[in-house]
Fold each of these.
Amino acid sequence: MKNLLKAFAFAFALFLYYNCSVEPTEIIHEETFVNQQQADPSIEIPDVIDQETSTCTNQDPQAKLINSSLLNADIEVFDSFGMLLTHAYAVSPGDESPILSFPVGITTFVISTSESVKNIEINMATCMIFEVEIDEDNQLDTDTPTPL
């Protein structure tokens, strides 16, 4: 009975943790414009997600694997402590992985096929993407990140 209050507080904290979510600001702005347009149809909704006109601000770094080889490929993203942050396994030949997002910092990318494994360590900052392409000869075409 004496731990009931602690258990209740812990359960309440877990409830709040699992039910709270963070939405990207683009979605919030878009919803606001949609609501305004419904009230007044003459208001035009700007394209907030247009990549050519928008600039990146504080966006987490990203990675993407393009597999042009004849073998399935994997990409794993580890932090500086060796913890797995994100991954894409069994990317089929001729296919590409989804865009993987992860926190800023020294990051180790492990790109592997059934024939080879390559580790690449890069200090990734905000607004950077690391696009890795495996060519027909199972060689990496690029191993440098580019700005978003």
Amino acid sequence: MSLGPWQIALIALVVILLFGAGKLPRLMGDAAKGINAFKKNLKDDKSDPPNDQAMSADTGDAVPDPAKKDETAKS
């Protein structure tokens, strides 16, 4: 079942009556701001470098990565 032009017009009319003509642009603007903020945060998360040290679950202290060798221990 597809929506015809009369059904779409009726739905639009009901939405306008429920929310009011002045409130709809503000709602759409707020939705657009939310989407843009979400996209920006996704982009920021991808650009952050990964943390070199893991956090200890018990104390919250930084635990050095065991795969990395200490350069000062060689001398």
